[in-house]
Amino acid sequence: MNDMIRIEGLDRRLDQRLQRLSSDPSTVERSRAIVDKALGSGHAIYGVNTGFGALASKRIDDDQLGQLQRNLLLSHACGTGDPVPIEITRLMLQLKAHALGLGNSGISLPIFRQLLKFCELDILPFIPSRGSVGASGDLAPLAHMSLPLIGKGQCWNAERTGPEPAAETLVRHGLKPVEPGAKDGLALINGTQLMSSYGAFVLHRALHLIRAADILGAMSLEALQGSAAPFDERVHAVRPHPGQIRVAANMRQLLVESEILESHRHCGKVQDPYCLRCMPQVHGASRDALAHATEVVEREINSVTDNPLVFDNGDIVSAGNFHGQPLALALDYAAIALSELASISERRTYLLLEGHDGLPKLLMADTGINSGFMIPQYTAAALVSENKVLCHPASVDSIPTSLGQEDHVSMGSISALKLLNVLHNVERVMAVEMLTAAQALDFRKPLKPGKGVLVAHEFVRDHVNHADEDYEVGADIDTCTRLLRSGELARTVQSTITTLD
């Protein structure tokens, strides 16, 4: 697919795609013409002139086809729970427009142009996050997303502090509601845009996080006077998993010119604990798993996932591309992969506090009166344990819906929601390692760590100070989380170590 949207550079690629569709909606017009012609044939077409789901056998009169689609949006907007985050809501709109623009959905041009106008003006529907079972499309969330197009439902207000009636949002932007025609509602709510938007958002953030994991691991290794021998290129050539090879190469690059390594090269230590020695194997396995999940999500966001599908020869085929099983499995896998980055990170934090090789216990010289960095490790341990619960796969569950017509569902929406929670926990666990590794490296001065580690340490110290006594450490954890979330740490180190992957 020449116009394929990728996770890397996602925002830019989507903006370019939607601008092209706005100036040339010919694919939409062509597929709509096929729907209009098919309606003239008098044949029953699922969801176009019939009811939905268990009501598929009920034929709808021609003069009620618009009302059928309007009712579909109203009846299916029954989600609940906290709202979908604004960034992911924006992605849902953009990915839905992109998918409809591929020309196999038969949506009407007025509805499609209204959707593009929402993207252009950044009008964001207020979407409850719960209610999808990950099959027949993300029906309830996409219904909430689509209702504002016709002046119903809710949008985020101008201040992004809460919801307001969509009718008020349209007036503020000088827009009028658009009436749906035949198939419009179905094309809007059949699809996997909730699941795929969560997946794309998390995997985009993970691009920075996997590099940061290697950087933080190298900082901890230097602070703990660990060995670089486990990163020998020959070791990984005989077990050539791609992620493992990349992580080992990153470690070698980050440790170049290390005075700390040289200072203990002949210390007699035989082996480091696994959390240091096996970083290529653990980080690398997570990289490979996340790479697989990225491939699945990229295929999905470039696919047509509604029903029925419209083809250029005039065929309109009812099938099951809305089923979220590919995403459900991949997003469960991604959550497990991310959680392991936090699990091994917490173990390194624990080692840093134990007082190995000249480091003060709890990373503070005057303990007793001071607790040092004892409790941040508790926080990391709690989040790692929470991730173990969140990583139970949602994709192994199924509950029949629509009176048994939809008898196997993916629960991929639950995989998606859990994945975002896992990401947030992982970022905070790694923020604790960032804070403690930087503190530990201070005690190795005047010896310098490797070139990449030195850049990382200086970067952290530009934002967080060394601690000589107890203080409100939570604010620093928040700062480190923000630095990880933004990708600033990885970008700063990559500006010096350009080969860091």
Describe this structure in words.
This protein has 501 residues and is mainly alpha-helical. The protein folds into two domains: 182 residues, Fumarase C, Chain B, domain 1 (Orthogonal Bundle); 288 residues, Fumarase C, Chain A, domain 2. The chain has 20 helices and six strands. It has a two-stranded antiparallel sheet. It has a two-stranded antiparallel ribbon with strand order 3-4. A two-stranded antiparallel sheet has the order 5-6. A hairpin with a 5-residue loop joins strand 5 and strand 6. Helix 14 runs antiparallel to helix 15 and helix 15 runs antiparallel to helix 16. The longest helix is centred in the middle third of the chain and has 31 residues. The mean pLDDT is 95.
